[in-house]
Amino acid sequence: MTTAVSPGAAHTAAPANSRGRVIVASLIGTSIEFYDFYAYATAASLVFPALFFPNQDGTTALLASFAAFGVAFVARPLGSVLFGHFGDRVGRKTTLVASLLTMGIATVVIGVIPAATNPGWAVLAPVVLVLCRFCQGLGLGGEWSGAALLATENAPEGKRAIWGTFPQLGAPIGFILANLVFIGLSSSLTAEQFQSWGWRVPFLASAVLVIIGLWVRLKLIETPAFQKVVEADAVAKVPVARVFRTSWRKIVSGTFIMLATYALFYLMTTFTLNYGIAATDASPAGLGYEKIDFLWMLIVGVVFFGIFTLVSGPLAERYGRRAHLLVVTAAIAVFGLLFVPLFASGTIGVMTLLILGFTLMGLTFGPMAAMLPELFPANVRYTGSAVAYNLSSILGAAVAPFVAVWLWDAADSPVLVGVYLAAMAAITFVALLFERETKDVDFTDDIGS
């Protein structure tokens, strides 16, 4: 993975990825990646505070667990640079295989870490957990952009936003799959069994999913856009240096365009799960729902996430990415102001909050696989879109659960959490106002210099 593909090799490997192969390869990869990621997010709320931070009080242990959760977001920009370098030099296919292996191996290792209560593991267990989270973030930092390019660089003219929704659909699929596994385990095991070993099963089971993902991706050939870059001898020697030199404004723009999406999603999943379940030492302000009941409520909401991810593609193709996202982002800001009355008005209000929030999530997340790559020329497209996407993960997602816990604790109410989401949406709205429409950019032939 240290040298670019030769022009001759690119010329020989004519584009032949079928629509079905592209859809399956981009969808299954992100589904696996997000399954791994959400398995940790669920465990971070439900079991990790007691397992890995047993000597802390409830709130401190929860914050420590979320801090470990946030380590992956810090690693993601590093992963975007690392895998972006190879994605823009060697090609999308090889890099996607490497990113999948990186996150998959780290996830399996999490499943075998002894608890901190075991002799000799009081310090080592949290350290290993954080290292694995770092590797998960590193892999995910290269995964999303490669999957997005796999879909959009193979898409027919006028279909990029539609094809781009297929890797995005991996997010709700991965979430539902991970939580169904947790529900099944929680239903069939006692609380002691789940706390002792049951939580490990989703992490160990991911090995099977990774093997399937590798098998599908190894059958791909390179995308037409990257083949043109190679044929034109326009491969960037140091993609990260070139993209910051030639497209730094687009990186800033893309980072803030994703901000509301990230803040919304991680408040709707990690935060709502933590405060939806019955009050415990790790969740002192819980609303009183049983864990399994609230996971089912989340799954219902995420179904709307998946549906409206698919709906967003045709809308963004018809009206343009910018116009579509401006409307959705304004709706997210209003939703933030409704967060408190919905979250505090019983089961109907909570379900309304989950359905509305995840519907907005699908509408804002779906077009991003087209819009962010469209900001960059093909020879730095992997690096540029990955860096913007993952820098936004720090600003919008890594701190979101942590800030939400702190705001709730400070105000003894979710009121400031909703204001926080509205503020993130306002920043994204301004970023969109300053960005041009990308629907009609010269995507395949703009290879860069």
From TrEMBL:
InterPro entries: MFS_dom, MFS_sugar_transport-like, MFS_trans_sf, Sugar_transporter_CS. It comes from the Bacteria. SUPFAM superfamilies: MFS general substrate transporter. The lineage of its organism: Bacteria, Bacillati, Actinomycetota, Actinomycetes, Micrococcales. It is found in: Cell membrane. The chain crosses the membrane at residues 61-83, 95-115, 121-140, 161-185, 197-218, 251-274, 294-311, 323-344, 350-375, 387-408, 414-434. It is a multi-pass membrane protein. This is MFS transporter. Residues 22-440 form the Major facilitator superfamily (MFS) profile domain. Keywords: Cell membrane, Membrane, Transmembrane, Transmembrane helix, Transport. It holds the Pfam family Sugar_tr. Gene3D superfamilies: MFS general substrate transporter like domains.
